[in-house]
Amino acid sequence: MRILVLGGTGYLGRHVAERLRALPGAHVLAAGRDASAEFAVDLAADRPDRLANTLAAAAPDAVVNCAGATGGDTVTLAEVNARGPAVLCTALREAAPTARLVHLGSAAEYGPGIRDVPVPESAPAGPVTPYGATKLAGTVAVTSAALDAVVLRVGNPVGPGAPVASLPGRLAALLATAGQDPAAVLRLGDLSAHRDFVDVRDVARAVEYAVTVPAPLPPVLNISSGTALPVRELAHGLARLAGFRGRLDEGTAGSARSAQVSWQCSDVSAAARALGWRPAHSLDEALAALWAAATEQVP
Length: 299
Hints:
Elements (H helix, E strand, L loop, with lengths): L1 E5 L4 H11 L5 E6 L6 E2 L7 H11 L3 E4 L8 H22 L4 E7 L23 H14 L5 E6 L1 E3 L8 H12 L6 E3 L6 E2 L1 E3 H13 L7 E4 L5 E2 H12 L4 E3 L19 H7 L7 H14 L3
Parallel strand pairs: 1-2, 1-4, 2-3, 4-5, 5-6, 6-11, 7-10, 8-13
Antiparallel strand pairs: 9-12
Helix pairs in contact: 1-6, 2-3, 3-4, 5-7, 5-9, 7-9
């Protein structure tokens, strides 16, 4: 089975590619802007005909799109998160119409949730940020493309290799350099929001199942833990693992991307029915793996 992974050098993409390479008989091909990729692809800029030629050369049985932008200006977000999936679907219809497409979406597409109410896939989308809006546009492009395709709406991924652009990755880097100085103060912003954290290894396993399970699949599936936890719990849990003796300063400033969403939790029962998938790792396990990887990088 030939599987083309777009964005395979990114945070989610690395875990996905590693998981897929362990499949018996799988031949995983990397595509992206990185020089190490076997196929040069830039979803933000490539024309559909050029991408179709690349897909024809790769001849994939399945395509996994892990490419996406979480930060940057609105134009950048739109180019990668909205235009990219639309161009990919157009090229797939021409060059590999029978290949399964697994596209990684985001729970940010739902917008603010209602406290204690997990959001099912049937809930209306109402993103409140450019990130969520552009990810929703990408989802619409995929679900309306008349392909064998599924969108996995991923919650807040946590685990080894988390980028410093995310709170878990940034906090792990700060803790790794702060050591156990009791006078250290780490300024993190507001930690009162609740988020549905999911181990990145569970996300990779969901992608494996989505690639290999027989068709047809629902157009959208939530991939999260199914439980909302305070962001504060993540921060203090990681600090305990690090043996941090200083202070975590919760100021009023926080992430601009999530400031308007105080509660986020996804209903993951549909993924259990369609894929046989359930989250296997707890937040504590995800944090332990994140911290172990972060300390390996400190000289």
